[in-house]
Batch of 2 targets.
Target 1
Amino acid sequence: MFENLPQLPADPILGLMDAFRNDSNPNKIDLGVGVYKTEQGATPVLESVKLAERDILELEQTKLYIGPAGAAEFGTAIQSLLLGENHPALADHRVSTLQTPGGCGALRVAAELVKKASPDAVIWVSDPTWGNHIPLLGDTGLQIKTYPYYDVANHGVNFDAMLETLAQAKAGDLVLLHGCCHNPSGADLSQQQWQAVTQLASEKGFTPFIDIAYQGFGTGIEDDAYGVRLMAEQLPELLIASSCSKNFGIYRERVGSVIVIAKNAEQARANGSQLARIVRGIYSMPPSHGAAVVAHILNNDNLRQHWLGELDSMRQRIFQLRGQLLAQLNKKDASSDFSFITQQSGMFSFLDISPAQVQRLRDEFSIYMTGDSRINVAGVNSHNIDYLSSAIVSVL
Ligand SMILES: Cc1ncc(COP(=O)(O)O)c(C=O)c1O
């Protein structure tokens, strides 16, 4: 049965992880995988998560199934975190929220809903976008097109070209936007640009689909949700895929949610029933533990404050690292302009060097990043910053 199936090449990011693991150079640096790291290069469990897990271990009464939509208290807490407590869409009962296995699960389930509602829909994704968007969304059979986003020359968003292309999107199409901390470029839309895309969506009738996987890593937990909240208020329909992997540091627990904003409460109930049916036909129900941790943290004042403090220190550390990396690069090579590193936000930036230069960094210095020169800034620390900046300058 399987003999026609050839071996596939390794996933670029997972393959990079393997190559890094097998590299014996003691100075090796991993800037590839998008996970937060401390000064010591570790990705520990957050204290707030440990405390919540301790409570859950004591309080949990049953391991019964939780149902396709997941835990109601998780859904309520996560939609408030994204939309804010008193968002009009919540007051009008236009929101259906479903717990999913990670942000990836949310993206896929949302795409399956679109496939049911509008099988000929085109999903417009930014060029470039996170590598897994295309398999997650495209494997449903929906058509994927790209819109220009990142401009290498300016190291920022090419907003005019983006709007010009999105003007071709039609009613029934989806436009995938990164809620904050664009992956891979770190270049985000300004508030005025979010307003302009909202206006265009309203004129053209396309539906925005916001993937938000880094809330709290950009400018702060509330500010990072600006685009989500604006669009949820001003547009009749909106899809959101959110992930708790990064901001709660619970990557392997697989916690995310799909949130669908509908025209009215009746349609929201119908959308909720459709989402549950889709999930029933794929994995039936999400895992419980990680979402129970998130709900417990968000619904407990002390734990919530503790978590917000931890999230804030992760965000600030990345912000400081951006400044330190820029200072080192400037010191070592005054002729190149890397100032964009401090203008971008979240975990990622492009170095905007060529694939050949990326390869040299890997071969000659054991510094690992994806071929497009995306770096995970959180992989930088006081022990490796000197070696890293000298290596970058030497391949320029
Ligand atoms: C842009 C973006 N969206 C979604 C995800 C999904 O995250 P997960 O499925 O691990 O929650 C990621 C993870 O790297 C991401 O970078």
Target 2
Amino acid sequence: MMNRRLFIRTVATGAAVLAWTRKGLAATYDLVIKGGRVIDPSVGLDGVRDVAIAGGKIAAVEANIAGDITETIDARGKIVAPGLIDIHTHAGRSKEGPPLALRDGVTGWVDAGSAGADNIDQIAAVARGAPQIGRALVNIARTGVTSGGELLDINSANIDLARGAVVRNRDVVVGIKARLSNNVAGPNDLEALRRAQEVASSFSLPLMIHIGQSYSPMRAILPLLKRGDIVTHMYAPAPNGILDDQGRLFPEVAAARRRGIIFDFGNGVLDHFNWDVVERATGQGFWPDTISTDWNVMSKTTGVVDFPNVMSKFLMFGMPLSQIVACATVNASRVFQSFDDRGTLNVGAPADLSIMELREGTFEFLDNYKGTRTGRQRLFPAVTVLAGRPVQGA
Ligand SMILES: [Zn+2]
């Protein structure tokens, strides 16, 4: 056994070796991102730093990093954040989607139920071929999303077929999705939810439900969710949203959050949020756990525009920037196990980063009801770094 004196000497020798290495051999980095405002909520960092990358991993986050540096990005005046993780997209619908999202800073995405048992294999193929990490939720309706309402016929929610879809695609399927709006499920919402939960629970996977204008109220829906499940479109207007007729947050909603249900923004295009609900809910302290876009390849021309634009909407309501970044990075990474080592600039983490510009000015933001609000700041995507390499064509 090592006695105390020997142990002390060993430590001293180690320090000496380290000092010699620092003087004698310059550290070698593939890329250093210099002088940006690094916001990494996973370690509580918000300050001007350099980020050094070697071998596709974060090698150091420090002031004034020197050494043998192959490539430098000047990030002075910009925000340097972990790569954005968008947990509600439809990026898997075509192979053009993932590279487009990557330009916006999205280095990880989840396709949230575009497809069910009948068509999930195509989505899974897109996810496997994507430049960044892509994952998918299986819609409990075998058809996936349909414009006519995929759960109006409850037979579409077939447990065995959904299980088969998960089994065939265990490498990319990370959960189950159910859309519960009245125009999607009608009075079948609770039965569809029960079936979706039966599939999700049998694999210990999270279930994401889409709420808003459902047939059943939140107090009937929420008890069917387990810890780690996700409610997307959290600020969907009445009927049957998270607020009562007086605009007060239902106590059942706050209780659901306390027992580990995750509330996700899910911007979308139609019926998913209006400014009034955001204002009332956030005024009562009910902020999102995660911010997501409900993005698809057409989003540039809708109120989504891009992920940083969606994040900017919360600046208007006074949410601190570091908390907004957390919702789009570390918080999102904790929802699905596949993203465990992401959403952070910890040394050793995959070197996925989103460099953004926070511009001051007059910016108009859209809700899903043609409501506009004017903000004084907006985040713009600048450079995406994926696995240590700047993405071209951004
Ligand atoms: Zn969606």
